[in-house]
Design goal:
With 548 residues, the protein is an all-alpha fold. Helices cover 56% and strands 2% of the residues.
Length: 548
Amino acid sequence: MEEREGEVRWDGLCSRDAAARDAALDTIGQAVLRRAESIASGAAADGLPVLAARDGLGEALARLLMLSKRCPFPDVREKSEAILGGVQELGIRIPRPLGHGPSRFIPEKETIQVGKEDATMHTLFAESFATLGRLDNVTLVMVFHPQYLESFLKTQHYLLQMDGPLPLHYRHYIGIMAAARHQCSYLVNLHVNDFLHVGGDPKWLNGLENAPQKLQNLGELNKMLAHRPWLITKEHIEQLLKTEENSWSLAELIHAVVLLTHYHSLASFTFGCGISPEIDCEGGHTFRPPSVSNYCICDITNGYHGVDEIHASPAGSIPVSSTESVCEVEALMEKMKQLQECRDEEEASQEEMATRFEREKRESMFVCSSEDEESAATRDVSRHFEDTSYGYKDFSRHGMHVPTFRVQDYSWEDHGYSLVNRLYPDVGQLLDEKFHIAYNLTYNTMAMHKDVDTSMLRRAIWNYIHCMFGIRYDDYDYGEINQLLDRSFKVYIKTVVCTPEKTTKRMYDSFWRQFEHSEKVHVNLLLVEARMQAELLYALRAITRYMT
């Protein structure tokens, strides 16, 4: 059933031309039904149960299931469903989706349903499907914010598929290396498929030691960028650029750094929003029939429960009165008003501002979850990177001191942007647009309140993340952070940014309990972009120092 054998070609489904899609579906349907008939007749002759997984048929059926649920083109959805029905009539068990919707944290009924999207969203979905050959769950959650999603997809497409210093299979392998640092099997699975599709060597997937030395040499930078970017020096850059036959060019290194930071941050979004496995990937479907109660014991052991149980209330397992939640919103708005009044009345001295930053940086070290809940189940992906024990470490633990990174000395706007654009044309511009959209995005709402200026809150979130990375803005009063971000929110932010694989639904539910899910996804966009920019600042500063 593999494309390599020429039996099934899925590429035609990405066409924007309905006739081309129709022809592709006819060919796919014939190939699938031919294989299904052969398996069904063989099994009947042998008196054996029919196993759809034989000869790759299972993979094709899972792909058709995904298309029937997730393709933005109605003709493809309907015909995929019809092909599955034809296979089922032959007595072969077809797969069904596991889980409920694109996110484990957001009830499916509150997400955008494929086929019910408006014209703007449909254009985005069609663009995404035509580019990637799928409409993935990340897109279905990000589409709460179409303006951002458009910028994100444009940037990701450029990094992965347009002309650039690195060959296509290297790009996907670097994506795998980056996602694996956070054990993000969701992203690893997607890019393993893409890596093989563009002709990548399957042997490389057995472990980093099987990849070319040039990629192995990137392992150290990947590790530091993901967990302790403040340790990156110009010597690390020099090592990569000066290694005889396995050396990187400056342009290749910039491309690799942008890919690594993109996928570290996307792993944060994946865990922060509880993104479910894709329907056609491992954990996204099952061939077992549903039980009377709508799910079987194997689903429960895999962490999939009944829809009513998972989404019983907006606050999940944390019962809270609506009055209490409304008070939470009102209190936050009152604090914002008071801080604005204080700003207008008096300004703290530079010394006091510096002291407040150091205090916030120090306090951020002690923000950690008291929970020992299991994080989302994941298959082992550690073979894609080395030194599995290397993780995030706070600045001053174990006597380690890291100097503060002053944005006034090296900033994205004045330094990083031009360096990226010079070595990898247009990418600086794309990243800059994406940073600005995420930072400035607002609908002037807070929970049930309208016409609210949220700029103070958005800046506090962005600057708190940069503060955790030691990055300081001289003109910002870090005293505002403690006023605006409560402990449960800080725990969520720090977990999603620093150790995303430990994020739980309880953490997601416990902050901003009266806010909309779209607002929590908005928070995640800020986390993604602030984290990416922080990592980039450290890497680009080291590259600049190497060059001068």
